[in-house]
Amino acid sequence: MAPVPPLYDGARAVLATMHGKERAIAPLAARFLGLTVEVPKGLDTDTFGTFSREVARSGTPLEAARAKISAAFDLAPDAQVGLASEGSFGPHPQVPFCAFGRELVVLIDRAGGLELVGHHGTMDTNFAHQAVMDREAGLAFAAKAGFPEHGVIVMGMADGAPAPNLALFKTIAAPADLAAALDAAIARTGAAHIETDMRAHRNPRRMRAIKRAMIDLVRRARSRCPECGRHGFAVTERLTGLPCRWCAAPTFLTRADILQCAGCGHREERAMAAALADPMYCEECNP
């Protein structure tokens, strides 16, 4: 099979980041999309939201990524393509007591009017937090989170909730720094809130997830609509209800993918390779 030619031939792309995401995104963008990626100087992506709560993110993750790209274009008016990523973390929607991370990487070609979005969802995240009353509990939390390879953030507490306005320590590189931050927060507010630092440059697991989202974007970029030829013909919806092999009742497993073109609207339904679900996923056979 002949290799797929890159979408771009050395076109200039600007990546909206201040947390080292170019390490995960730029090599793939160069190799598979033909983009020359640079990071604009002076861009403060914290103005679009911070994990440590000083700035609340407004809108959806996709809207935040688009806003970052717009700001990057302002600093690089000659760039044809803009790139940005955004992550969200919280409880797993189906598995109790487990954390879940969602990453997306967005590409906008302002000359061609193209927008591509790569996605990756994973349980491979150390997203966690804890309220502690003493230094030892905070150090134990950090060790479990993988500190110092994985960063942690310490802040004060008020009325049982995190209070970064009262105390906030984000640049914590060594155990001595962590102990000092915990002591300071506890002394100031009576307790400390410690959480994993989810900024990409301080969280190797998140950096890997961003890379996976970028791989998904590359796949989408290299998939063309069979009707109009537009890049980005990809899955936009998954239909659940794969029937149980024993009783034929619908399960929550995917039975088909819906692919749709953002240009001409062409839509296809593609069934999964498996026609029947294992009874272990059936609420009738395995309640």
Q: Which properties best describe this structure?
A:
287 residues, alpha+beta, Maf protein, Dna Ligase, domain 1, 4-stranded antiparallel beta sheet, 12 strands
Characterization of this structure:
With about 290 residues, this protein is α+β, with helices and mostly antiparallel strands. It folds into three domains: about 10-125 and about 200-220, Maf protein, CATH 3.90.950; about 130-195, Dna Ligase, domain 1; about 225-285, no CATH class. The protein has helices spanning about 20-35, 60-75, 135-145, 175-190, 205-220; strands at about 10-15, 35-40, 80-90, 100-110, 115-120, 130, 150-160, 160-170, 190-195, 235-240, 255-260, 265-270. The protein has a five-stranded mixed beta sheet with strand order 2-1-3-4-5. It has a four-stranded antiparallel beta sheet with strand order 6-9-7-8. The N and C termini lie far apart (about 45 Å).
Which CATH first-tier class of the largest domain would you pick? Alpha Beta
What's the total number of strands?
A: 12
Class from secondary-structure proportions:
alpha+beta
Task: Summarize the biggest pleated sheet.
Answer: 5 strands, mixed
Strand coverage percent: 25-35%
Low-confidence stretches: none
How much helix is in the residues? 10-25%
Number of domains: 3
Distance between the termini: 47 Å
Shape: flat
Output the number of helix runs: 5
Q: What is the CA-atom radius of gyration, in angstroms?
A: 22 Å
Rounded mean pLDDT is 95
Arrangement of strands in the largest sheet: 2-1-3-4-5
SSE pattern, N- to C-terminal = EHEHEEEEHEEHEHEEE
- Write down the CATH topology of the largest domain: Maf protein
CATH architecture level-2 label of the largest domain:
Alpha-Beta Complex
